[in-house]
Design a protein that fits this description.
alpha+beta, Alpha-D-Glucose-1,6-Bisphosphate, Chain A, domain 4, seven-stranded antiparallel β-sheet
Length: 154
């Protein structure tokens, strides 16, 4: 007997993971740049994250391979740097802050030849924080607005 398998595209996978967290904010946009260019821009953490994430002031990559990264993120209003472990796949990225303090998910798929469908999710993966969902959603919405304005620029 063989078990059935399911293949999820990166955006569906993001939505499935985010659904496990009651306070997750999730959003999706179509970007007017080809997938390869959009994904390369998004994965250039040090140069681009602060251009679209409203809470991030600086990102430093401490270690990186094709599939993983270790980042140190500085945020507005937080004097302490937050370390993140990052898993990277084509079109899917999961960033987990140490101590389970924060989760960021990014996913993208081609939308035709010259556009990209992008989804973004953020959550505080601690129990009892479901009431913070509206605030997290506002952060995600602001990030997506800034991303649409800045994608592809350095």
């Amino acid at each position: 007997m063989t078990w059935p398998t399911v293949e999820l595209d990166p955006i569906t996978r993001l939505r499935a993971i985010a659904a496990a967290f009651p306070n997750a904010g999730v959003g999706e946009v179509v970007l007017d740049v080809p997938f390869d260019r959009a994904w390369a821009w998004l994965m250039d953490f040090e140069r681009t994250t602060s251009r679209f994430d409203t809470m991030v002031t600086n990102v430093r990559v401490r270690q990186r391979t094709d599939t993983t990264a270790k980042l140190v993120v500085r945020q507005r209003g937080n004097p302490f740097p937050m370390p993140f472990d990052v898993s990277i796949e084509p079109g899917f990225c999961m960033m987990r802050a140490s101590g389970r303090l924060f989760l960021v998910l990014m996913a993208a798929v081609p939308e035709g030849d010259d556009r990209t469908r992008y989804a973004h999710a953020e959550a505080i993966p601690l129990p009892g924080l479901g009431r913070t969902r509206a605030r997290v959603q506002r952060m995600v919405d602001a990030d997506l607005r800034r991303l649409r304005r800045n994608i592809g620029t350095y």
